[in-house]
Amino acid sequence: MPNFVIKPAVRTNNITYAVRDIVVMANEVAKTGKEMLYLNIGDPNLFDWEPPKHLVEETYKAMLKNFNGYAPSSGIKQAVQAIEKEAEKKGIKNVQDIFVTTGASEAIDICLTALVNDGENVLTPTPGYPLYTAIQSKLQTMENPYYLDENNGWQPNIEDIKGKINSKTRAIILINPNNPTGSNSSPETLKHIIDLAIEHNLVIFADEIYDKLLMDGKKHTSIAALNSEVPMITFGGLSKNYMVPGFRIGWGIVSGNKTILKDYIEAINKLLRARLSANHPEQYGIAPALLGDQSHLEVAMKKLTSRRNLTVEMMNAVPGISCVAPEGAFYAFPRLHNVTDDAHWTSQLIKETGVVVVPGSGFGQMPGTQHFRIVFLPPENILEKAYKAIASFNGKYIEKFEKVGVK
User: Fold this and answer.
1) End-to-end Cα distance, the chain
2) Are 178 and 154 in contact (CB under 8 A)?
3) Domains of the chain: which residue ranges?
């Protein structure tokens, strides 16, 4: 037998993904026979949601026609054309390139890899989706989080962003609507971000994967629609709006000044060619999804609005918990006011109640604050049962742990 240990690459040391990591603990609890209530993963298909039938049918037809080989590196023609029309609907002008990827995650990974060198940094929203920090850890770039303002509906804090920009900053990431808070950035906020990008020669990465999931009649503004010269990449996909996360189909739309973007676009395409192509038959679902019947969205938003309302009402009724009402996506990010360690609180919640949520520390948060993320996709009877369990647990937790210190 070999007598040595294989050491993993240093670049993996700081990679965590709280959304999935918490499942390891939940699986152990489930083995004890406890009823589990999962509010941790944003997968609509685990609950009472289905994708539009015409999307699935066209994908199935593509498979039967044996479109099962490699696709062009940037995506099949009809998919790219449909995404271009989608960009036009969003008001995005001066589009320089469009590419289809294996989920929006791959698009984000490729675009960061093509841009950022060792020692450079990218402004990353906090709270924000942990994929971004994971990729930056892999690339060994410097962390540079900027905070969202909980007291201002989780809008990006412009003054904080200003203070974080330095000579090594290459880009700013915007998740809008935001995961995990469900916030929807205002046009005024977006214009301030554009001004900073112009002043400091930054690329804007606009993650708009939830752009069709808005409540209360709110409208989504694509930041790329507000300026046609600033270099921007708008990320989208089928996963959330069209409820097929398992298809792993996403895309990037590059817009802005052609001269400025030329070399960067070629670098992106080098990486696209090197990985061959995104899933082929699933790309045939892009055009029918984007250009076809959208009635599923109306049904989805009625359900999501009702479940959002229940979430906000019941969370704000719990002593020691407050919850800013999300305007988009299907997440809420309640605050724990009398808790000093949200990861410990979450682990105890899972063990004692079977309710699975994700600690706020997995998404980043203002120092000294504690949160947890809720996915309110499940039916209302499940949500109500889970929220009652949280309410009962929170008081007992504070009495047991906070008065003597967390151990």
Assistant:
1) 40
2) yes
3) 10-49+295-402, 53-291
**Burial degree of 310 (CB within 10 A; 0-12, 13-18, 19+):** middle
CATH second-level architecture of 53-291? 3-Layer(aba) Sandwich (3.40)
Q: Against a cut of 0.90, is the pTM above it?
A: yes
Task: Tell me the pLDDT of the chain (407 aa) as tens digits.
Answer: 677 888 888 887 777 766 777 888 888 988 999 999 999 989 999 999 999 999 999 999 999 999 999 999 999 999 999 999 999 999 999 999 999 999 999 999 999 999 999 899 999 999 999 899 989 989 989 889 999 999 999 999 999 999 999 999 999 999 999 999 999 999 999 999 999 999 999 999 999 999 999 999 999 999 999 999 999 999 999 999 999 999 999 999 999 999 999 999 999 999 999 999 999 999 999 999 999 999 999 999 999 999 999 999 999 999 999 999 999 999 999 999 999 999 999 999 999 999 999 999 999 999 999 999 999 999 999 999 999 999 999 999 998 887 655 54
Tokens representing residue 140 in the block: 């060994």
Residue with tokens 């045939």: 284
What's the half-sphere exposure (Cβ side, CA atoms, 13 Å) at 387? 29
Cα gap 191→74, rounded to integer Å: 30
Instruction: Tell me which H or E stretch contains 21.
Output: helix 18-30
**194 touches 223 (CB < 8 A):** yes
Token digits of residue 383: 């949500």
- On whether the CB atoms of residues 310 and 326 are closer than 8 A, the answer is no
| Domain 10-49+295-402: assigned CATH number | 3.90.1150.10
